């Protein structure tokens, strides 16, 4: 039973990481001017 569960969890991890990447990109696009102003201080 190990292999199917492993595959399913891998798929879930891949999907969630893609989703997280999308969210992170959106957040970075929204936050980047603020972050840049903070960085340049």
UniProtKB/TrEMBL annotation:
GO molecular function, one term: N,N-dimethylaniline monooxygenase activity
Signal peptide as annotated in the record: 1-19
Keyword Signal: yes
Keyword set, alphabetical order: Monooxygenase, Oxidoreductase, Signal
Superkingdom: Eukaryota
UniProt cross-references to InterPro entries, sorted A to Z: Flavin_mOase_4 (IPR002256)
Official protein name in the record: Dimethylaniline monooxygenase [N-oxide-forming] 4
Gene designation per UniProt: FMO4
Biological source species: Macaca mulatta
């Amino acid at each position: 039973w190990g292999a199917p569960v492993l595959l399913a969890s891998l798929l879930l991890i891949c999907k969630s990481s893609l989703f997280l990447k999308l969210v992170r990109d959106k957040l970075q696009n929204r936050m980047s001017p603020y972050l840049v102003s903070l960085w340049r201080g």
